[in-house]
């Protein structure tokens, strides 16, 4: 797929929209792809599993399909990325457990964010406040 001039410019200046030119170049020269997850993220390690002399283990990285969102790494790949195992998810025999929920992005700051009972950001802010609650006001004597 040919890149547009805008996409090339974004590759120079942004890291959150995919890979930068530097990451692409390093991946091409020093990396080997080891797999892809269900979200389309691609996982890499240093060629032939070569260990970094400073770290003592191979370097591993992910190139996200869309926006760089660390929560988009599934549990099996998380284990591999953080050197908890050297086995890829398909080699681990990893299966999704019935209690695991599908990925949901962080909704903080959006209309879908959690609004606890009594929050002024809820559509019904008074719904969760009990009738027996008296708010404290600075300067008033506290009830005994």
Automatic annotation (TrEMBL):
GO CC field? respiratory chain complex I
Annotated region described as Disordered, given as residue ranges: 105-144
Name the source's superkingdom: Bacteria
Gene Ontology BP term (one): response to oxidative stress
Chain coiled-coil ranges = none
Q: Which keywords annotate this record?
A: Ubiquinone
Please report the name of this protein according to its UniProt entry: NADH:ubiquinone oxidoreductase subunit NDUFA12
Organism annotation: Acuticoccus sediminis
């Amino acid at each position: 797929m040919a890149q547009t001039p805008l996409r090339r410019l974004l590759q120079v200046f942004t890291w959150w929209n995919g890979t930068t030119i530097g990451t692409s170049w390093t991946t091409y020269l020093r990396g080997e792809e080891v797999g892809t997850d269900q979200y389309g993220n691609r996982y890499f390690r240093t060629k032939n599993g070569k260990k970094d002399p400073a770290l003592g283990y191979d370097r591993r990285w992910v190139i996200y399909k869309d926006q760089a969102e660390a929560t988009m790494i599934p549990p099996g790949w998380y284990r591999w990325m953080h050197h908890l195992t050297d086995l890829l998810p398909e080699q681990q025999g990893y299966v999704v457990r019935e209690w695991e929920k599908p990925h949901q992005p962080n909704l903080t700051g959006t209309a879908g964010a959690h609004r606890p009972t009594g929050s002024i950001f809820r559509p019904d802010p008074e719904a969760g406040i009990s009738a027996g609650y008296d708010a404290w006001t600075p300067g008033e004597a506290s009830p005994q």
